[in-house]
Write a structure and sequence with these properties.
This is DUF397 domain-containing protein. InterPro entries: DUF397. This protein has 61 residues and is of the alpha+beta class. It has 1 helix and 4 strands. It has one domain. Strand 2 and strand 3 form a beta hairpin. 21% of the residues lie in helices and 30% in strands.
């Protein structure tokens, strides 16, 4: 799937003041993550299991 066709949304884990904005888009078998503050931000493409592990770790710290 082309990443240009993804629908991005601000992660609920982002700060509410707009300073820590992470955007997430899902596709079959992949979770895409990028920094919304950087134009043409590089994107991470993670498996759903890796994304779940990341969220588990992030919420513990």
């Amino acid at each position: 799937m082309s990443t240009t066709n993804l629908v991005w949304f601000k992660s609920s884990y982002s700060g509410s003041s707009g300073d820590d904005c992470v955007e997430v888009a899902t596709a079959p078998g992949t979770v895409h993550v990028r920094d919304s503050k950087i134009e043409q931000s590089p994107e991470l493409a993670l498996s759903p299991a890796s994304w779940s592990h990341f969220l588990s770790y992030a919420t513990q710290n």
